[in-house]
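Hello forum,

I keep getting stuck at the same step: I have a sequence, I want structure tokens, and every attempt I make locally crashes halfway through. Rather than fight my setup again tonight, could one of you with a working pipeline run this one for me? It's a single chain of 719 residues.
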Amino acid sequence: MQKKEVKNQDVAIKEALEFEFPWENTKTPLNERVDALVKEMTLEEKCSQMLDICPPIERLNIPEYNWWNEALHGVARNGRATVFPQAIGLGATFDEDLIKRVGNAISDEARAKYNEAIKINNRSRYAGLTFWSPNVNIFRDPRWGRGQETYGEDPYLTSRIGVSFVKGLQGDNPDYIKAAACAKHYAVHSGPEEFRHEFDAVVSKKDLFETYLPAFKALVQEANVEGVMGAYNRTLGVPCCGSPYLLQGILRDRWGFNGYVVSDCGAVNDFHAFHKVTNTPEESAALALKSGTNINCGNVYKVLKNALNQDLITVDLLDQRLKENLLTRFKLGMFDPIGLNPYDAITADVVDSDSHRKIAREAAQKSIVLLKNDRSVLPLKKDTRTMYVVGPNASNEEVLLGNYYGLTSNTQTILDGIVSKVSPGTSINYKSGVLPFRENVNPIDWSTGEAGKSDVCIAVMGISALLEGEEGEAIASSEKGDRTQIKLPENQINYVKKIRKNTDKPIVLVLTGGSPIAIPELFDLVDAVLFVWYPGEEGGNAVADVLFGDVPPSGKLPITFPKSVDQLPAYEDYNMKGRTYKYMVKEPQFPFGFGLSYTSFEYSNLKISDSYEVNVDLSNAGKLDSDEVVQLYISSPLAGKEDPIYDLKSFKRVFVKAGETVNVSFSLSKKAFNQFDGAGKEVLRPGEYKVYVGGALPSDLSEKLGASIPVTTKIILKT
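Reply #2:
Ran it on my machine without issues. Output:
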């Protein structure tokens, strides 16, 4: 076996030396190879390589390539792949190491599928290696249908999860990128979906640099993300894909980004069609190219030659943008002999493999958030005498997937997971009982009475990506993917109320969804509430693992759950005042960072040194070994005035055995206490800062809902 590998390597090296064109010489630096290729291309050939669909150039041995590929929570829209929990669920894990492993598994499958695809000459959309993921927009308003694609409302959490995902996706080989990640949608983009092609996101410089840009900056400077996608909307009056300020001044000049920029699909056409900042496709193409957009996902760059003839752009500019995008394809090894790139050896047996399914199950387990558990109803006993499962989402595969998903033949619904856990002697039954979004057509109701007679009823309710998502995908949404209300559908509320009238036995409410669901009408009626997001192909098993106590719940909310939309500012308002845990003064239903456990944790002995080393003791005072997500927040001297009320600065997922105490440390720096002024500049405000460490947002509501009591200390800082 070893001799064969050496022989293959020798053959590959020999082939690499017998190149036909200078850019095929793998011993030449990448920039020189790109220069050599561009020098040989005709004007028409250059223009053809500036769109998402790049035709082959046979005379130069350049194969067809399609830039548009998706991998939000698994290789998407390209057949069989492991379906991990939706991105918002990955955010709820607060687990950087896990997310890196998820990204690594996804890119292994991506390479395996790509290797197989080129064998059969499948170079179609979604079969490539330039993935337009992750989505690191800020989930500033729970009405946004695409919020499920993000990691939540907090810039710091989004940064940490996003950096880990990108590092896993791109790999750590010094010579090749395993798959190219892309930070989207840059920038200040989070609805409304209906107006995204014409909307101007008006934002202050403070909010821009404090809230909307940090995750993009982290992905560029820490994770070396290969691509950035410009958003559809305008920001500060200028279309994002044609903004010199965003794409040159900040992204390339200030942050040092040297990858490729792609427009969102159709966004350059929006310049003249909807934003009305240009008059012709040629003017739109010129604005985008000059501003820094390398790849036009769409058709407008087909007029680049016309734009040249009209002196709107130069050949030098075209060459520069072309080189920037070709460099990514070279880094992926697309112009090298097969065998030189170590990722060429990844085989198809990794796709939806047992090891990847285990990671998907772990991710789903860690994402599940326990919101209520009166009288310790959970975990359930596997030998409970009688159980009844109801709800439109119990046997619904749709709620496992979210959006931008792959396919698998082995999904585990929530009903599948529950049934697989209980004793063979348990009498367990199931009826959907209620339609997902409207009242039942048939007035006869058998299920609420039967459910009420059981020892426990598990009601699997919530929403799906049919009701929330992108403008053309959420086919049950009247708002083109967004939601006007964040409450549970009224028919589901009424159904659970009917069950409660028929029983005094425990009711466990399991909610699926990719965004906050307000349940004020049901919170006091049910005994336990689990929020499970869109948990992926192993979601049913993971939910059952938590329901029956094989794995204690440890997920935390990555977004505030308001009581209703009445607590929210106007949807179109991008000002952060009144939004997210940082600036919301009204008491929500569930706070950011909140999530209960089957055990109890106690915090003590918080200390912070002169070098900003923070130490705290974490004790598991219960009877179950469990993870806890330890969260560190600060409040500045101007907290609640000019600065956030609370500001997440660090977190760690820690495993603690029952009855044991561990010391948890955080290495901060003085810069961690910086705030942003009205001009978007980082400043250190002199005065007294408060440091909080606990298992949830350090609010009165967190404690009222059962979170552990946080510990706090103070530190005086001078400029």
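The longest strand covers residues 626-635. If your local run keeps crashing, start a new thread with the error log.
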